[in-house]
Amino acid sequence: MLSRIQFSLHLSLLLTVAATGAFSQSQDKQPDRKPIDSAPIQRMAEAIRKQLVTLPQYSVFDNLHFAIKGSTVILRGEASRPTLKSAAENVVKKVEGVQNVVNEIEVLPLSPNDDRIRAAVYYNIYSHPAMTRYTSNRGPQFLSLTRRTMGITQDPPIGWHAIHIIVKNGNVTLVGVVQNSGDAAIAGMRANTTPGVFSVDNDLMVANQEK
Questions:
Q1: Is the pLDDT at 177 greater than 50, yes or no?
Q2: Whole-angstrom distance, CA of residue 51 vs CA of residue 53
Q3: Is the pTM value of this prediction over 0.85?
Q4: Domain boundaries, the chain
Q5: Which of 13, 48, 87, 210 is the most exposed place for a label (fewest CB within 10 A)?
Q6: pLDDT at position 138, please?
Q7: CATH class of 112-206
């Protein structure tokens, strides 16, 4: 029996289905036990995901994921601003079925250099023609916003972004989902060639890719 289920904001629905399959297999192996109803967990996970992705503080420079263990939710990931950590905990506490929240979200260090790198990596990735389909933020406003050298962490680009850019002490991690491995490679290369970036972990996942 699974005692804890992990969910990411990008892949929570996929993992919920996987968890349902795991529960089903567990039931097959233990026919004498009462069948486990995974529907409440699925509903809770989707409610939590919805609350987190709609937070005003949640931006392209943040990465949140969570685990459900009974009625306890464990929040994890990285926040570029401290307000996101507290806001995430507050909204998750209000979700039906949640009795306790363990907040393990890491607040990334305040760094002018990381601020500059966020802006530069964002521009280098999303200005590529193949990458424009992964954001709703386009046009002149996009160009003026991302060419700034400072301040983008506190005033991040608005809109939907499939690729999130996490920067810590000059090290970059890309998370999210893209349509094919070629796009994942382009994003990684564009981030890796950004001046001032020390390293890049390309954790982008490809939609519908068999694992």
A1: yes
A2: 6
A3: no
A4: 5-107, 112-206
A5: 210
A6: 73
A7: alpha beta
